[in-house]
Design goal:
tRNA pseudouridine synthase A; 5 helices; EC 5.4.99.12; 245 residues; tRNA processing; globular; tRNA pseudouridine(38-40) synthase activity; 2 domains; ten-stranded mixed sheet; RNA binding
Length: 245
């Protein structure tokens, strides 16, 4: 039995998230369905670096699975992509150590959030970025972002409907980048809580809009109360960009 590590990308627009759910189309369901076909109907379970919600995309999701088949690494890419729907693609496959785990061996992740700032909404961007046509003070957003760096209890930036008790995480980088009409927020850290990046984004947008003082972010963090942070930004602008091992 050989363990394989795969990097996959997917357009989350038409998925009810990553994880298998009864009666719903998910990324895990589609990948496991393709693997079952390769294994002549035998089920093969996959394990991912983490879940993504409905509408959230991935450029660098990592999964692993075990297989008894003697298929070369590069052939797995061709075989899986020939069976997967067009909104999922396997970008690379490599042999992994027997004890490798896509989730538990990850030491960090990068997420990116895309905000389309054109005055008129774009029908081509509606599934891939958040349309925000209002003025933003980018300097204020960058000032606010500096307060997020380091190791903190991020309870204020976690959705209330979670059973995770330890909410301490390290944010290593927050980068606010302007690219024409698109604004990109890059978040790199040890790990992220449920809806954390979307709540961070919503709160940074308030700083940019002038409705929240950038200097108040330390108080929001220390308050450890979800009601102190901003709204949760929509799912369509969020991408799991890279997983670090």
């Amino acid at each position: 039995m050989q363990r394989f590590k795969c990097k996959i990308a997917y357009d989350g627009s038409q998925f009810s998230g990553y994880q298998v759910q009864p009666g719903k189309r998910t990324v895990q369901l589609e990948v496991e369905r393709a693997l079952a076909k390769i294994h002549k109907g035998n089920p093969v379970k996959i394990f991912a670096s983490g879940r993504t919600d409905a509408g959230v995309h991935a450029r660098g999701q990592v999964i692993h699975f075990d297989s008894p088949l003697a298929i070369p690494e590069d052939r797995w890419v061709t075989a899986l992509n020939s069976l997967l729907p067009k909104d999922i693609a396997v970008e690379s496959t490599e042999k992994a150590a027997e004890g490798f785990h896509a989730r538990f061996d990850a030491c960090g992740k990068e997420y990116r959030y895309f905000i389309y700032r054109g005055k008129i909404r774009s029908p081509f961007e509606r599934h891939y970025s958040y349309h925000y046509p209002h003025p933003l003070d980018i300097r204020a957003m960058r000032e606010a972002a500096e307060h997020l760096l380091g190791t903190h209890d991020f309870s204020s930036f976690c959705a209330s409907r979670t059973d995770v008790e330890d909410k301490v995480r390290e944010i290593r980088k927050v980068h606010v980048e302007e690219a024409g009409e698109m604004l990109e927020l890059h978040f790199t850290g040890s790990g992220f809580l449920y809806n954390m990046v979307r709540i961070l984004t919503g709160t940074l947008l308030e700083a940019g809009a002038g409705t929240r003082d950038p200097g108040s972010f330390p108080e929001v963090i220390s308050g450890r109360d979800r009601s102190l942070a901003g709204k949760t930004a929509p799912a369509e602008g969020l991408y799991l960009w890279k997983v670090f091992y």
